[in-house]
Amino acid sequence: MPRILSASLLLALAVPLAAQADTAADIAALRQEIDAIRSSYEQRLQALERKLQAAQAQQAAPAANVAAVAPPAAPAPGGGANAFNPALSLILSGTYGRTTRDPASYSVTGFPLPAGADIAPSRGFSLAESELGLSASIDPWLRGQASLSFHPDNTVSVEEAFVQTTSLGQGLSLKAGRFLSGIGYLNEQHSHTWDFADAPLAYQVFLGTQFADDGLQLRWLAPTDLFLEAGAEVGRGRGFPGSDSSRNGAGAGALFAHAGGDVGDSHSWRAGLSLLQARPANQTLLTTGAFGGTATGVYSGRARVLVADGVWKWAPNGNATRTNLKLQGEYLRSTRDDRAAQSGWYLQAAYQFMPRWRAGVRTERLDSASVPDPDLLAAAVYLPRKDSLMLEFNPSEFSRLRLQLARDRSRAGLPDNQLLLQYQMSLGAHGAHGF
């Protein structure tokens, strides 16, 4: 009996001890699994951190202008499908015009224009300036862009074709090739982004509608909360007020500065001052007098155009999708070595009163303050002017239908009532427009 009792007692004590041993083993195993998971997680985390640091260093190297950067990988031998894959855009535009005066005799009284200046409105149906654009990054340091314009007379011209740096640093950017000058506000914008179908009179008589040149442009953007940029250009001087020639060196130069910012959540602004100087040589100019006669002159010397521009925009809480208002104006003053001094300005407003619908009004004036030719003194008394109304329907952000009415009094004694219907369609890739 005592032996049975002792055996039972030993068995009762052994069972909990065995269970305790199993529990300790399980705990040790769990700890080992946790340590293994922690070690694997830390290794993976360290690997991800190394990849992130390497990517950040590679991104920062071009911006910091570090010389020891690995060259970009060469394309596959023979050229792959994506070896040349630029962003393509196509702007299709057409117009129907109706005028009370013959466009063939169009002129601006008292203002000299180069022979063959294309500033007359069009009659009937015609293809307006349509544009094919190509742009792409070349490598980590350069990008390229080209715009080809198709004109109603079945000709094609190169509007822009340039390369531009992307990583000079310090807010600097260098552009080389053919480009629209950065002077003023409207000049640098392609015509399909304008709020009206045509350029203001001041742009037509002082800049040949738009000034583009072959040369170099250096631009600097200040690292400030206030938008502040400055730029300088030097070029061939191929466009009016310059004249293309085979001279060595530069035929034109420009300086410009712009500033802008926000006022609260609903208002923004931009203002600028620019100076363009060209050196035309043996430039043939035609000037229409107040009584319809035309004087022909040849000019060589300096031609300077000063431009002051300002833009103010309003959109409720910064949301311009439903309603917005844009006020825009520029003043241009042209002077030459022969004491000719003339000026002009325009002021316009474009109001989106509901989604997809906009209306606009523009008024503009020219002033011949000084005319050196005695035969044109009577023209100096006349002040050419023009007033326009615009109504626009945008079915989408890629399409536009526009009706424009204008009372054009550019020619003394010959007022011209103009009606213009225009369509513009955007196909393919198209970047955001400037301010």
TrEMBL record:
UniProt key word Amino-acid biosynthesis? no
Keywords from the named record: Coiled coil, Signal
Q: Where is the signal peptide?
A: 1-21
Q: Which InterPro entries match?
A: Porin_dom_sf
| Positions in coiled-coil regions | 31-58
**The UniProt record lists the keyword Cell cycle:** no
Native organism: Caenimonas terrae
Q: Which protein, by its recorded name, is this? A: TonB-dependent receptor
